[in-house]
Amino acid sequence: MLTINKRKNTIIFSSLVLIVLIATACAPLTAVANLPFFNSDKANAPESAPESARVSEPAQENAQPSNNAAVVDPVSVAALEGTLTDIYNKVNPSVVSIQVTSSGISSVNPFDPNGNSIPQVQSALGSGFVWDKEGHIVTNNHVVQDATNIEVVFDDGTSFTAKLVGADSDSDLAVIKIEADPSVLAPVSVTDSDAVQVGDMAIAIGNPYGLGGTMTVGIISALGRSLQADNTSLTGSYTIPDIIQTDAAINPGNSGGVLLNAGGQVIGVTAAIESPVRANVGIGFVIPSNIVKNVVPELIKSGT
User: What is the pTM of this model?
Assistant: First the structure.
């Protein structure tokens, strides 16, 4: 009987030991990993930053622009477009296209047995603008120089034959005159060119390549330039001072047109370009309005 009891006790004890071993084997690995002998390296290593701190912050897609970033204000753009449209509608009726014909040097007709010459007729295009209600129109001297016929065309297609009133080769300015009803003439507003600054808006209206009523926009690029005038008088060559430089597109045919400020006032008369290809490359020269205001009244009064 005693033997049987001992055997029972042995079985019970063995069962308990087996249960403990199975429970130990199934314990979480994290618990085992936290035992002291597994943590010997971690104990000596510096504490690392939390995982969230090691993740860099994503770039903000909607970040606000810096103070130096260019910001386009739709309202300002619309206002500028409206201003340019208003200026064009106001000033363009005062700007004219000028078509000039002149007699050049005659050449001998090789097929004429009598050796009669053939007259050479030359034509040119330019621009001008209404100065007053009396029909005076300002343009460049080189546009109407040696002209035998001058035709003036307004933006509505109305045309007039003009006569030369006076010209000044030193300033490259000329005044022509048409006989028109004063009610259809709208003189431009001429302002002080000394108030012009580099960076100001510059608006050109003229007749480039015969395309009347063309407006281009740029800025004042420089001041105080000089321009060589085509002076054929006894005084020799003359340099026009205080010339305004602009990057507003100026092309052949623009000569005699207007350069305006942001208020639609005339600050100069477009006169020439600097270009190796006889077309606009962003360097245009303009006779300042203060010279125009000094010269034009004298040309109207005396012709010279």
Answer: 0.69
